[in-house]
Amino acid sequence: MPIQRRQFLATIGAGAIAGVAGCSNSGGQSSSGAGVAGETLTLTTTTSTYDTGLLDEIHGDFEEMYGVTVDAVAQGTGAALESARNGDSDVVMVHARGLEDEFMRNGYGINRRDLMFNDFVIVGPENDPANIQGMDSATEALTAIAESESAFVSRGDNSGTHTKELNLWEAAGTEPGGDWYQEIGAGMGEALNNANQQGAYTLSDRGTFISQRSEIDLTILVQGPIEGGPEILANPYGIMAVNPGVHENANYDLAMAYIGWITSPGAQDAISNYEMNGEQLFFPEAVSEDPNFQQYVPEGWSSNSTDG
Amino acid sequence: MLLEPIAQLLPAVIEHPFREGYVRSIIYVSLYVSVTAVAFSTLFSLPVALVMGFSEFRGKQFVKSIINTGMGFPSVVVGLLVLFAVSKQGPLGAADLIFTREAMIMSQFVLATPPITAISLAAITGVNENVRDAAHVLGGTRLDVALVVIKEARYGIATAILAGFGRAISEVGSVLIVGGNITSSSGISKTRTLTTAIQLEARQGQYDTAMLLGAVLVALVLTVNAIVVRLGDEGAMR
Fold first, then answer.
1. Which of A44, A148, A198, A265 is a plausible cystine mate for A80, CB 3.0–4.6 Å?
2. What is the CATH number for A203?
3. Is this structure's pTM higher than 0.90?
């Protein structure tokens, strides 16, 4: 069977060439360096995650461990998912479960993990014209703001925070609109500044609010679940790899290495140790004794349902 | 010199609220991207302006009005167009240009070319007919005539290049979209420019550091203008 032998030799030759190429690529690295060394992982994430500085703080460890570079691109949740949908990023870290689920259902994202959480708070001026201070229902608070027509600043940028705000209005059964409701189409920091300048209410993630608290006069009027507030204000972050079956040039190996690393006990500790102005910003939730199968699939999905 | 301590102090003051090397690296990226883009734009625009200035053809007014429209092209729209081109799904997707400086250069090239072409064209058409004829009569080739005209129109052309540079280095819409505003985890810029850094600071409500970076940007543009004008003057004395 000469043909088969030739094929065999060709295979060995190709293997040898690939092996040599591998060596020359990793030249300068230690010979035991990981096969991903020198590659770049593109992570699209949300502005509110990026702006806390958490990623810059913890990425150094990952980059050192694998000899790679992480390019973190901060976009709104909608834009971050859109970049991934176009194959322009390898991994996404966002906080809008509904949009994440849609992303998975459409086949773009796989291997989703719960990553960490913090919470949203309703902030407003100290004189509190709508009298919502201490309310333990976020929807009642929003209804009170709408009824008193007190100024409310909305992100209006299809971000995770904006999505949450719209869900809250819907849950409150109130259609926001009118002069008092302003969509500014900007990031959280700008929204807080805008609300501060006109004495308006707004919905903020706790992290951004803490990082800006010293510069503005707004106070927390309705707490999130971290401080005993309603569960509806929880702000869970998820992480997903881009499906290499849809985008074959997505860097799937490295994306999974990253997801493995950031959900590992070490990185999760680093997340809980990250503080700003003496306060913890994120609470890790990837490491757990108990199984949580819902983190891998769209919410409410079950293998018994016909839902694909 | 009185200026020396100030010059030494200045970088320290600018770097102070930021991480080591951060401001220097975003200045570098800003200059690298804009200067490269403007250089390519100039290489493209000058021949176009010369050809258009020297010849008459049907539809010339139409081409002119397209170029003039290009001067007002919103940078965000250019950013979106370049994004579609370099995105993995786009025609240039295989080149892996998304979120790189090269993609930023492409979009700034598109932004800087119309003003450079239009203003150079105005300068070239403004050169006295007699100068052109004289060069021709004295036995100059077409290239000689072109060089004479460029020399006569140099102030206008310098203004054109500066206008293109000003447009490139001060725009934020397109570099944000195609560049992604990336720094490494150690705080060294990869695709972050002064303008996107200012946008980032403003987004976080850090208006004072945003202003500081704005001042750096203005100082940078002033310096480049001064250098170009100076070069133009020295050229004139020769």
1. A44
2. 3.40.190.10
3. no
Q: Which amino acid is at B169?
A: I
Asked if A71 lies within 8 A of B182 by C-beta distance, the reply is yes
Amino acid letter for position B209:
T
Find the DSSP H helices in chain A.
Answer: 2-25, 47-51, 54-66, 77-85, 97-105, 138-148, 160-172, 188-198, 206-212, 252-262, 265-273
Distances in whole angstroms, Cα of residue A307 to Cα of each of A98, A145, A294: 15, 38, 14
Which of A60, A216, A249 faces B185 most closely, judged by CB atoms? A60
Answer yes or no: do B87 and A215 touch at CB < 8 A.
no
Residue with tokens 């850094």: B197
Q: Which domain holds residue A45?
A: 38-117+236-296
Lowest mean per-residue pLDDT among A36-40, A53-57, A140-144? A36-40
pLDDT digits (tens, 9 = 90+) for A159-182: 889 999 999 999 999 888 889 999
Number of A–B residue contacts, CB under 8 Å:
63
* Domains within chain B, CATH numbers bracketed: 3-237 (1.10.3720.10)
Task: Give CA–CA dist B136/B50, Å, rounded.
Answer: 15
